[in-house]
Design brief:
Layout (H helix, E strand, L loop, with lengths): L11 E8 L2 H11 L3 E7 L7 E6 L8 E6 L12 E10 L3 H10 L3 E8 L2 E7 L5 E7 L20 E9 L3 H9 L3 E6 L2 E5 L8 E6 L13 E8 L2 H13 L8 E2 L3 E7 L5 E9 L24 H7 L6
Parallel strand pairs: 1-4, 5-8, 9-12, 13-16
Antiparallel strand pairs: 1-13, 2-3, 3-4, 5-9, 6-7, 7-8, 10-11, 11-12, 14-15, 15-16
């Protein structure tokens, strides 16, 4: 791959994972992490399962964590070929606050370390999801501050994701084609950054040559999505990827963004999503995430789905 998509991809758009209980998931992200639920809808392909979105006030790309809570799903098995950790950005000096706050909310796996000169607090979600908070100086992104956490401490959005791969070579080449640049190395981890990105513009690759492959389940990341400004830019990305030999889906309307998907050489499912039209297309910004919103093809099932879906207690 010689040509690149430099400046087209802005960083992360969203990260989508799987859970086993909608209420546990909702409570953790809105109370423990203080994020806003910006959309309560359903899985396009399995409408009897919620699709829950958590983010900043408006659901800004680069801040959006989403979940499919499958009530009877088994636990995921960590391994190669997956997103190994999802990392959020918090202000400098706030890790002591977060360590106590997360402990008070029952988060497990709390431990501190430093990576690439950044102070980090690792922790586990309700399904043993692997997360971290990283202190970032001067992150100007506006946080959601009505979730019980003040402006001085609140999450600003994503910092990065870490890909866990048996062999990083082809995926590293793909990231560089997508406009990322290698910024640093430490041990078996390589860091890639989109210059002048959206703040959620870091990808780490952790190489684990002998690791078994991961199995999807509760706590697993299903896919990671990258942000482009609009559909025109998305089509440019799609053509470039297909010209390079990747099998890319047609553009799919996801109501709040348009999406394309492709599988990376290391096994991780990538999505490229548009920043448009946004989460306020069917709800006023002041009331995001309150009502159950259904894709138009599932609207005839509303009465059935409202009886079937587990009520979410806020």
């Amino acid at each position: 791959m010689t040509d690149t998509l430099k400046s087209t991809i802005k960083g992360l758009h969203h990260v989508t994972s799987m859970a086993r209980d909608a209420n546990l998931n909702n409570a953790f992200f809105t109370r423990a992490l203080g994020l806003r639920r910006v959309k309560k809808t359903v899985n396009f392909d399995a409408p009897d399962v919620y699709h829950l979105y958590y983010a900043d006030e408006a659901g800004t790309p680069g801040s959006v964590m989403t979940y499919f809570p499958f009530p009877h799903i088994g636990p995921g098995r960590q391994g190669a070929g997956e997103v190994g950790m999802t990392v959020f950005a918090v202000p400098e000096g706030t890790l002591p606050f977060w360590e106590k706050h997360l402990a008070d909310h029952g988060a497990g796996g709390l431990s501190r370390d430093e990576v690439f000169g950044e102070k980090r607090l690792r922790f586990l979600g309700p399904d043993a999801d692997s997360f971290a908070l990283v202190e970032v100086k001067g992150d100007a992104r506006a946080p959601w501050i009505k979730g019980g956490i003040g402006d001085d401490e609140a999450i600003r959005g994503f910092h990065s994701v870490s890909l866990r791969l048996r062999d990083e070579g082809a995926t590293a080449e793909l990231l560089e084609f997508m406009g990322y640049e290698e910024a640093d190395r430490a041990g078996n981890v390589r860091r890639f950054v989109v210059p002048h990105g959206n703040g959620a513009n870091v990808i780490d690759i952790e190489t684990v040559p002998g690791a078994r492959f991961a199995d999807l389940g509760a706590g697993s990341v299903h896919h990671v999505a990258f942000a482009v400004e609009n559909r025109e830019k998305q089509l440019e990305v799609r053509k470039a990827l297909m010209d390079t030999g990747y099998q890319v889906t047609p553009v799919i309307d996801r109501d709040y963004f348009w999406a394309i998907y492709f599988r990376t050489p290391g096994g991780v499912l990538f999505e490229v999503a548009t920043n448009e039209p946004g989460f306020d297309r069917d709800e006023d910004t002041a009331h995001l995430g309150e009502a159950l919103k259904l894709p138009k093809q599932h609207e005839p099932l509303r009465e059935l789905l409202e009886r079937h879906l587990q009520p979410i207690v806020d």
